[in-house]
Amino acid sequence: MKIMHIGDLHIGRTINQFSLLEDQREVLNQLINRIDEEQIDVLVIAGDIYDRSIPSKEAMQVYESFLLAVNIERKIPVLAVSGNHDGAERLGHAKSYFKNFRYYLSTAIEDGLNPVEIEGVNFYLIPYIEPAYARMYFQDEEIRTHQDTYQRIVELITEQLDQHKTNILVSHLFVAGGSETESERELVIGTVENVNRYLFDVFDYTLLGHLHTPDAIRDDKVFYSGSIMRYSFSEIGQRKGYRIIDLEHKNVLFKPLTYVRDLEVGKGTFDEAMALKLGVNPKAYLKLELTEMEAINEPMTKLKVIYPNLLELKPVINYRDNQIQSMDVTHLSHLELITHFYEEMTDQQLDEKQFETIKNLLGNGGESLEA
Q1: What is residue 353's DSSP assignment?
Q2: Displacement of CA 167 from its chain's centroid (Å)
């Protein structure tokens, strides 16, 4: 069996009010092609299908088209869990009906307690669960953290786990030690959201979503797929793609995806940006951090002519460490005084042409102030 593991689709995502929906459609179409090329038997989606709990009609249409191509046209089983961005109840509408087409969607605790069996492999689908919800579900006031929540769920699964079969957990959570970016919204303070790695020892593989990099944790049995695209400028440099779990050959591989437009950051002066000297792709989704913009009117408008996908402009002001010093200038000539003042204000020396110009303007060679 070959399993494709993806997660954190965030369909409907925007960056600074710019919609990424068409880019997401292109990436999902690329995934469909990869499913054909890799001869995938099962697709796992580890949460955050949508970017909002109430997705737009357009976002739902993009996901529906992807599901139709994979699940209906190719008859590939799809196993998915809801993430913290998804509205679990809304997403889970008609999930009992979807099972008839082998689209298994888990949005509540009870959905994850019994396995979905496919060709002798047991998949346990545990959605993102808030401790408050688990506290009410189990009628246990001792449940306070995500660790408490998932430990209780895994304990129930362990009681009836068939150790003679391959057991795979799919979930959406934050394993302690994982690295996060700006895109993963903090829901709680401190480490209360973390879940310890040892909790998953009873499973042959654990396939996770929530952290947007596949390198968030290095482990032989616990894997993040990462998000399918970069969703913030803090994710530049991260690998983006999907994982293949080949149960026959017992290996797990990461496969990168390609993008027509990606996120880049350019740094330099405003004039360098206008002259295309920042070393960035002008068609990319850009964040520019520029100096020497103080006297520029409507810089965003001017820059967008050259960089049509400019999403963020950050002015950078070079602050000088100004220290108040006193000195006796009564003995200095006018020329010496001007030269000294220029050096103090600019940290540069007058060039030969500037020096000669000032000297000529003074007329008499720059007489002393005492003259």
Answers
A1: H
A2: 29
